[in-house]
Structure formats: C-alpha cells, structure tokens
Amino acid sequence: MKELQNEKRICQRKCLLAILDGPVGADFAKVGLMLCSFGKLFMHRRLLLASLSLPLLASCASRPSAPTLTGRWLQPVPGMPGAEQGFELLPDGSARSLSMVSLVYERWSSDGRTLVLAGKSVGNRQTIPFEERLLIVKLTETELRVRNGDFELAWHRAL
Q: Domain with 93 in it: what CATH number?
C-alpha cells in the first residue's frame, strides 16, 4: 500500500512538472494528474499520460512563434498619395506616433485579443487624454487589423 502511495506521488510530481514546463500539454498533464487520483485508473496512468501528451509535445516543437505587436505599423494617409502614418509599439509598453502631430501615442498594452492604445490628442489649444480599446481581428508578421465597433482599421508592418 505504501509503495502504491509513493507511485501516486511520483506520478503527481511528473504531471506537475509537465504543467510547469509550459503551456503546451498543460491540459493533458492536468488530465493525467486527475487520472492519477482515481484508484481504478492508477495502473494505466503512465500509458494514458504518455499517449495524450507526446503527440501534442511533438507538434509543439515545430510550431512557429506567434507574431508580435511590437514594431512600426503604418497605413496610407487619406488624401495624400504616397504618405503614410501610424505608430510604433515598443517592447517596454511605450508607444510613439509616426507622422501624426495631433495624435500623440504614449503607451500600449494587449491581452492577445485587444490592443489598448493610450496617449493624448493635441489641437485647438486643447490637450485631451484618450485610451482606445481595439479588438484584434488579424495579426500576422506583416498585417494588423483591428475593429472599434463597426469601424475596421488596417496597418502594415514597416520594415
């Protein structure tokens, strides 16, 4: 009985280590950990955990990294052929406006689904702080599309 409890603890530690190793496979490791808790399935835990997590871990090794929001994003200036405007998102959370004098971006953040841009609007002898929450519709290495209500905006990454 004591040997069975030791085996159970070892299994739980392995499952916890798999969870701590990274997000990929964490759900399968949690399933394995739960199965380790059930006496009837205890003997099959190693085979089950290995069969569930190995294919996922193998596919993870070749998965490309997700595109990042950091960088310079530009779009054409309406009514000015050849001119572009946009913003630069820096890794430290700060932001800069590009070719926009009256819209001063200062900082940004994202939860992966929403891009938050904050700064101030300057003009007509007024300075008005703002914070825009934009739903990320598409993010690739070269394209960023966001939606604000029914309005959609697109930028391309500057090289």
A: 2.40.128.280
Write down the pLDDT at residue 22. 45
Query: Cβ of 63: how many Cβ atoms within 10 Å?
Result: 8
Residue-number span of the structural domain to which 89 is assigned: 71-157
Domain boundary among 33, 61, 89: 61
Alpha helices in 38-85 (DSSP H): 45-61
Q: What is the pLDDT of residue 39?
A: 46
Statement to judge: residues 92 and 38 lie in one domain: no
CA distances from 146 to 8, 33, 69, 83, 113 (A): 48, 39, 12, 21, 10
Buried b (16+ CB within 10 A) or exposed e, 16-25: eebbeeeebb
Query: Terminus-to-terminus CA distance in the chain, angstroms?
Result: 64
The C-alpha atoms of residue 109 and residue 115 are separated, in whole angstroms, by 6
Express each pLDDT in 51-69 by its tens digit.
444 444 444 444 556 789 9
